[in-house]
């Protein structure tokens, strides 16, 4: 036989073996599927039912990339995601042809003026520049690999003018001065891997004038990699501030305060996606993370629902005063608003005693997390655009608004959303998931599983290899740069020289029927609700006093 005949025989044998393998596999699956008792669909439709489970498994990816429109995806649509990516990767802030926003739906709009400010009229720091890197897109064909050029970029930092800098805790021994309206929200080492935290720290340091919040997981060496100011968050689990018995360690607090890099402390009372302390699955608690948090390695971490160090507003404010006196640093709280009068007791006690936090971080119910429970994530806590005016109006009603800075958080990943939040009463804005996008997050929703495929929300060393710090840090800087630049563009459009001057009068709300109201009107309605709630509480307090 010649070579061709041998090849035909070999090919025929391989084909027969393959067919036999498929037949045997199907018969085995038929038998096992018929006998198993867990899945009824497999008992009635063996093998075919497995196809159904396979399609169900790949459903999220199919919807994200194929079936959802550009504006449909949740938590963030494709458009929202790409806005961040293009800013981070290319410093690209322009769109073509037209917006994909549904203008028939209700929503907030920025009220532009007929005579906007010129660029040279804007009041900003015109001396500080930053050196970063960005991509230039050269070719993006359908089948070929995208061709890009990686080049240096020296640009204005778009920081606030010294006159407009935001000062947190002006009466403390060490006030915290920031020249960026946007910073990084709380993200713990453990929820995110060391490479992600490092890239964020170094990128924010490149951008200058901003901050990063450690999250409740404690201060790690990776938070200190970049030259960036730090909000040290303290959660109910006291991670990083625990002694051997789990009590609050005042000596450790002083040691961290004296480091200089920590500019302010924040007590986390609640988070938008979970009205309780954090949760970390056992597989994410590596020995390094356990050492930083002072817990056992490879054991799940469940923070208490609240602090054991205080039980009410008076004891909370006493604890804040003690930390402030012990460190000389500003001290604030992170809260979630549940109803109109939920902040009343705090504001009232601040007025009566002169005590109070230096800042209040208001986290909306739409905020993100590494892991939470469905019922808490979906339904507990007001969204940020409802919560912000309540906090601002309540503090103003009691005359204590000027003593505290408000930091807003909750899906505020683009300049227009940040502008609305500032007009609603925020002094500063925290962003978490936008910065996660900038270091590579593709929104697979696996943050709780330690299986993040791009190495962001995982402590798995192999998966983290996907994240290249020396590239992603520049994306972080670029994203923040374009956010700040965009805020100045919005300010110019409404006729003011700095975004710090955004007020309710600069925002309009349009309902589904096309009827518009200024945010001033919406704000007035919220203030009336706040005052009504306060009156009811006062009346209830009076009635109880009389009964006693």
UniProtKB/TrEMBL annotation:
<dbReference type="InterPro" id="IPR002932">
    <property type="entry name" value="Glu_synthdom"/>
</dbReference>
<keyword id="KW-1133">Transmembrane helix</keyword>
<comment type="similarity">
    <text>Belongs to the glutamate synthase family.</text>
</comment>
<dbReference type="GO" id="GO:0006537">
    <property type="term" value="P:glutamate biosynthetic process"/>
</dbReference>
<dbReference type="InterPro" id="IPR013785">
    <property type="entry name" value="Aldolase_TIM"/>
</dbReference>
<dbReference type="GO" id="GO:0015930">
    <property type="term" value="F:glutamate synthase activity"/>
</dbReference>
<feature type="transmembrane region" description="Helical">
    <location>
        <begin position="6"/>
        <end position="30"/>
    </location>
</feature>
<keyword id="KW-0812">Transmembrane</keyword>
<dbReference type="InterPro" id="IPR024188">
    <property type="entry name" value="GltB"/>
</dbReference>
<dbReference type="InterPro" id="IPR027283">
    <property type="entry name" value="YerD"/>
</dbReference>
<keyword id="KW-0472">Membrane</keyword>
<feature type="domain" description="Glutamate synthase">
    <location>
        <begin position="152"/>
        <end position="496"/>
    </location>
</feature>
<protein>
    <recommendedName>
        <fullName>Glutamate synthase domain-containing protein</fullName>
    </recommendedName>
</protein>
<dbReference type="Pfam" id="PF01645">
    <property type="entry name" value="Glu_synthase"/>
</dbReference>
